[in-house]
Amino acid sequence: MSKEYSEAVETAREYYNSEDADTFYFTIWGGEDIHVGLYQAEDESIFQASQRTVERIANRIRQPITPETRLVDIGAGYGGAARYLARTYGCHVDALNLSEVENERDRQMNREQGLDHLIDVYDASFDNTPFEAESFDIVWCQDSILHADDRAAVLREVDRILKPGGEFVFTDPMQTDNCPEGVLDPILNRIHLPSLGSPGFYRETGAKLGWEDLGFEEHTEQLPRHYGRVLEELKRREHELRGKVSDDYIDRMKNGLQHWVNGGNSGYLTWGILHFRKPQA
């Protein structure tokens, strides 16, 4: 049965399902996920920096993560965070993602790493999940909500599936609260969106839902650093992609990554870890 997605979500789904995008992200972006890394050295691998982001987010969670913890990653990409969590804590993780192509890679890696008994992968969108109300102790998300055309609807869905007392922790490339109109157009045109979320938007929306704000751990400098690092890696390994990825895609990706670097250095983009808790009933 085909699923009904919003226009923005369907655009993202088609993009991430494309052979060009899948080959690029899996080859260049570290192989485990397609999220922003936390770098400690200029020449550090994307894989290492991305793993550090996952560890940092996990360390922010207030409640103990045990084998009994129910956790869902919405917008899971290739599932690297889910595998880290399942391997480290022995907990069950549901990994939800809109790209069927990425999800097949995810399932294969789960089997190869002996973690498929702890991880279920769902083909679905985060604004309309297949889960029962109040199913999860923790909802996790990395760099995915920007693709939603109704980000408030995503947060309402998080509120629906989160247990009372549960935590929502996520990262997202965002525009600053004082971002002037038009300055991010090169990025927005590239990802086919009219705007990005902002820290203020997420905190205001969380407040409307009655969530406790557990803080915004800002790492804005890591955003241009990460996209610059990916751009360097693309240029270094471009020969590996030739013949597997179209020349047009490679050229557009170089331009797109540079737009993110420029936007990050302009002072009108921000990135970091937002953290909320749903109140006890």
Characterise the protein shown here.
The structure is a single chain. The chain has 281 residues and is of the alpha/beta class. The protein has one domain: Rossmann fold (3-Layer(aba) Sandwich), CATH 3.40.50. The protein is 45% helix and 18% strand. Strands 3-2-1-4-5-9-7 form a 7-stranded mixed sheet, with helices on both faces. Strands 6-8 form a two-stranded antiparallel sheet. Strand 4, helix 6 and strand 5 form a beta-alpha-beta unit. The protein is globular, with a radius of gyration of 18 Å. The mean pLDDT is 94.
Which key terms come to mind for this protein?
single chain, 281 residues, alpha/beta, Rossmann fold, 7-stranded mixed sheet, 18% strand
Task: Describe the secondary structure blueprint for this structure.
Blueprint: H1 7-17, H2 19-28, H3 46-60, E1 70-74, H4 80-89, E2 92-97, H5 100-112, E3 119-123, E4 136-142, H6 151-161, E5 162-171, E6 174-175, H7 185-191, H8 199-208, E7 212-218, H9 222-236, H10 238-241, H11 247-266, E8 269-270, E9 272-277
Parallel strand pairs: 1-2, 1-4, 2-3, 4-5
Antiparallel strand pairs: 5-9, 6-8, 7-9
